[in-house]
Amino acid sequence: MIAVVYSGSRHADWKLAEKGKTxxxxxxxxxxxxxxDENYITQFLNKNINLINNAEKIKWVYFFGTGASSNxxxxxxxxxxxxxxxxxxxIVDHDLKAAALAASADEPGILGIMxxxxxxxxxxxxxxxxxxxxxxYILGDEGSSNWLGRRLLKLxxxxxxxxxxEFKFKKKYDLDRTQILDKVYRQAQPSLFLSSFADxxxxxxxxxxxxxxxxxxxxxxxxTYIIPLKQDYPNVPLHMIGTxxxxxxxxxxxxxxxxxxxxxxxxxxxIYNLLKYYSNKN
Length: 282
Prior knowledge:
Nucleotidyltransferase, domain 5; alpha/beta; 10 strands; 5-stranded mixed β-sheet
């Protein structure tokens, strides 16, 4: 049996499979070694009945996640998973590698992540080529749900939202200035709070304010990440991966065209392709 995991900061998708057949699938809290230590990861693994019942049967664990971009951070996740899955070989890698395998398999391509965070990279068919992207929820994440939430709250707190949309926001959320600033500056994992507003924006994606906000985010994302990569690798396809890319797909394609780009594919949840990829190898 194999376990394939794709994790953002908000949640992780798990699929357990044997001989290409899915045994079970479920979600857990996200695993991000920027924010979560080994003890935290181990504790919630020990509370999941699906994992407890199958831990000794699993021989391979393939984990891909936000934040697992250095040997030190991959070790945090790998140690926790290794202690829980005692009879398994554990592979830990960055979500960009998951995007590469899900979108391109073993073919070259430019990969764009746009979910709770955002990132981009060139995949040569075997490995991700290192770059200086992925600056995180404070300095980067352009166009992501974290960025969208940050922009939305800033406009709200400065009383700059359109009246009708502000009414919708207040009706949905009972938040005042003190509560928002406390969640952003004092409570743990503010990126989860910021990205939580993406669902509300998707519920109202036909609103002109949301269209403008999301389009601005996509435009900034393409100019910051994708256009520089396209200049270096002009003849490879562009694949976009993540819930924001998929949820606002019409706006994504329009913003791409406005920047003389073509998006070859959009994948909401790469875990399905990952499961197929690794099932064929086991």
